[in-house]
Amino acid sequence: MKRNGIRGAVSSRRIAFFAAALFAALPASAAGKQEAKTNDSSEVVVWTYDSFVSEWGPGAQVAEAFKTKTGISVRFVSHGDGGSLLAKAIAEGASADADIVLGIDQNLKDKALGAGIFRPYKPIGADSIPAELLIDPKFSLTPYDYGHFAIIYDSEKISAPPTSLEDLTDAKYAKKLILMDPRTSTPGLGFLTWTKAVYGDGWLDYWKRLAPSILTVAEGWDTGYGLFTSGEAPLVLSYTTSPAYHLEYDKTERYRAAVFAQGHAAQIEAAGILKSAKRTKNAELFMDFMLSPEFQSIIPLTNWMYPVTGVPLPDSYRIAPKPAKLLKTAAPTDADLDAWARTASAK
Question: Is the Cβ–Cβ distance between 176 and 234 less than 8 Å?
Fold first, then answer.
C-alpha cells in the first residue's frame, strides 16, 4: 500500500480509467526457462494488499497478462494493507491457502524472514535489479517496485506547503493532516521510520508535537487517501508519484508533493513464495513474470510506483519530484510500535 505512488483506487473519488499494459516480448532465454517448467495446476494463488486488486489497481491487468503468457490463472486474495497482510500470512502458517505473498516491504522484511514462512527462489531477471533495491540476498523476498514517501498537499487550499517534518507541527496545520496506522499500513510504518531517521531518540517527542496537526490516522492507505481527495483535509501521507496520477488521469497539477531538504524515506515492495505453497511451479513462473517487461510496464500507471527494471516511464512522471536526499531507515521494533500506540492514544 503500496504501496506506493498511488497504489490503486481512490476510495471516495472514482476516476474512470483503464491503463493499457505495454506488452513486450520476453527474451528467448527467459521464455525457454518458463516453458521448461511443469505446472502442477491451472492457477496460482497470490495474497496481496487491497489496492493492488482494487478496480483501478494492477491486479486485473497482471492476471490477464500472466494468463496470456502462461495459460495459468491468478487468484488474487486481498488482506488489508501490508502489515495486515503479513500478520495474516504468519498467523495462517502452513495452512495458508496461498502460494505467494506480494506486498512485503523492507520495513517488514525482518519480521517476514524471521517467521520462516518463505523459501528462496531467484527469478529470471533478478540480476537486472539495482543492488540498492535488493532486500534479501537469498531471494526469499524479491523486489518488484519502489517509491518515496512524501506529504501530498492540495495547492488550492495550501499556498505555502511544509518544507520539513517539523513544519508539519505548526499550528496553521491543525487538524489538516491524514496519516496511516504503522501497525496495519506500510505507508504508516514508512512514516514512522522517517521520523525515527530524522529525530533519532527524540522521535516520540516529535509525535507529541505533531498530534494537534493530525485529523485522523487511517487503518490503510486507501481509506486515508480517499479522505484527502474527498476534501476532508489538505495534507496526506502518500508518495512522490501521487501528483503524476492526478496529472495523468485528472489532467490537473493541483496536488503536489512537498519536498523536504532533510530527506525522504523510501519504500521497496517485494514478493515471495511461501514454504507451504501447493502450486510451487506456477509460483516460480509468476515470480519470473513479475520481473518481465509485461508486469513491470503495468506498475507505473496502476500501482504508481517505480518499476525495478528499466522499462520506460509515462510522461506524467515529470511532475513526480525525485528527492535529493534519501534517508537510511531502520525497521521499527515491536517496542517502537507499542510506544507509538501509547503516544497516539494519549490525550
Answer: yes
Q: Is the pLDDT of residue 113 over 70?
A: yes
With cut-offs at 50, 70 and 90, classify the pLDDT of residue 24: very low
Looking at residue 167, which CATH number applies to its domain?
Answer: 3.40.190.10
Residue 35 covered by a domain: yes
Q: Give me the pLDDT at residue 41, please.
A: 81
**SS3 label, residue 322:** coil
Mean pLDDT, the chain, whole residue set: 89
What is the rounded average pLDDT of the residues 282-302? 98
Question: Do 74 and 169 share a structural domain?
Answer: no
The answer to whether 89 and 56 are in contact (CB under 8 A) is no
Residue 16 covered by a domain: no
Q: Which three cell numbers stand for residue 270?
A: 517485494
172 and 270 belong to one structural domain: no
Let me know if residue 290 belongs to a domain.
yes
Query: What's residue 112's pLDDT?
Result: 96
Contacts of 173 (CB under 8 A, 6+ apart): 162, 167, 213, 235
* CA nearest neighbour of 5 among 267, 230, 207: 267
Same domain membership, residue 238 and residue 116: no
**What is the C-alpha to C-alpha distance for residues 79 and 89, in angstroms, rounded to an integer?**
9
Q: What is the pLDDT of residue 40?
A: 60
Spatial contact of 160 and 259, defined as CB atoms under 8 Å apart: no
Strand 235-239, strand 255-258: pairing: unpaired
Model pTM score: 0.81
Mean pLDDT value of segment 314-331 = 92
317 vs 56, higher pLDDT: 317
Cell readout for 247 is 496529472
Counted domains in the chain: 2
Q: Give the span between the Cα atoms of 188 and 174, in whole angstroms.
A: 19
Residues 153 and 143 in one domain: no
- Per the structure block, which three cell numbers stand in for 141? 523476498
Residue 70 included in any domain: yes
Do 199 and 336 lie in one domain? The reply is yes
Question: Measuring CA to CA, which residue among 148, 158, 130 is closest to residue 244?
Answer: 148
Task: Pull the grid cell for residue 244.
Answer: 503524476
- Residue 185 and residue 218 in contact, taking contact as beta carbons nearer than 8 Å: yes
